[in-house]
Amino acid sequence: MGSGKQKNQKQLSKKSTKTHKNPSPLGPKKSAIISNETAISKRMKTKTKKKKKKGIVNGKESNFSENEQKKEKNEVKTKNDDVIQHPTPSQQLSYFLHQYQSANGIQLSSLELESYKDKSMLELSQGTAQSNLAEHMKIAFGPSFKEVLCEKKLGEGKIDPGNPALLVISLSALRSLELLRELRPLTRECHAVKLFSKHMKIEEQVSFLKNRVNIACGTPNRIKKLIDMEALGLSRLAVIILDMYTDVKGYSLFTLPQVREEFWDLYKSYFHERLLEGDVRICLYSQIPAIPRATEEARFD
Questions:
Q1: Any idea what the Cα angle at residue 148 is, between residues 146 and 152, rounded to 5°?
Q2: Distances in Å between the alpha carbon of 151 and those of 158, 218, 235?
């Protein structure tokens, strides 16, 4: 009889263990309710976060989130104010003079600053894409652009060889090639001259400059050498484009140390007096950094 009771007790214990193997001890209905509540609470937290961004918490405005919003707006404004997309002649001149004084370690007097005029700077067309240099030059040179920039014939007594009407100055050979591609609509008949040292011998450039040249593009060092040699002339020069492109390292024509020195050497040697006399106009091509207020105010004091 004792063995029979032990068997019954074992069977009962096995049944009891089977009944407690349910993975959800609270039952399927209760677990479903809890999972729904969890999902709802997550959604409520997400909505609260969104309201906080808008400056509303529990139906009330939050001063903290308002301040955050103002901060974000000011940051965006500051970023937009860091550069000027379409600089006016006055903005171009202020930035140009700031760079001129900084690079050469000088401070121009108010009398000297009066010698520089806004009309010496060329403003690009606002309605034309920034990367369409050919179209900008058509507008800048006006109705005579074909005769000045596209004509191939020398014309005895009228056009001297090796004297471009448009000179484009950039910080590198690679950038010069990019700018020449933008100018292709103007250079199909009369090819532009490449004035940089990379893969180009100076003798080849001298030979090319014995023909009519309307457009030339290159780097400061090679341009100066060719002017020094009297191979490149300036008698027809009307517009100088200074490319303000910034490379991947953040350098530009005015900030890359060696190139900057070479440019200002070129400028002081051959362009400074012509700019003051109104014989040539300069254009800062592409966006430029915002001009410091103190510098701009000093110009008008």
A1: 80
A2: 12, 21, 17
Sign of the alpha-carbon torsion through 273, 275, 279, 284: positive
d(CA 285, CA 288) in angstroms, rounded, equals 8
How far lies 174's CA from each of 5, 248, 257, in Å? 99, 13, 18
- What the block records as the tokens of 165 is 């009407």
Rounded distance, CA 288 to CA 297, Å? 18
Phi, psi of 57 (to 5 degrees): -135, 120
Q: Which residues are registered as beta bridge partners of 60? A: 57
Which strand (E) or helix (H) includes residue 215? strand 215-218
Cα dihedral: 202, 204, 207, 213 (round 10):
-90
Q: How far apart are CA 82 and CA 177, in angstroms?
A: 28
> pLDDT tens track of the chain, all 301 residues?
555 555 555 554 554 444 444 444 445 544 554 455 555 565 665 555 554 444 444 444 444 455 555 444 444 333 445 888 889 999 999 999 999 999 999 999 999 999 999 999 999 888 777 678 999 999 999 999 999 999 998 866 678 999 999 999 999 999 999 999 999 999 999 999 999 998 889 999 999 999 999 999 999 999 999 999 999 999 999 999 999 999 999 999 999 999 999 999 999 999 999 999 999 999 999 888 886 554 455 554 5
> Does the pTM exceed 0.85?
no
Give the contacts of 270 (CB within 8 A, at least 6 positions apart): 224, 227, 234
Chain centre distance of CA 231: 34
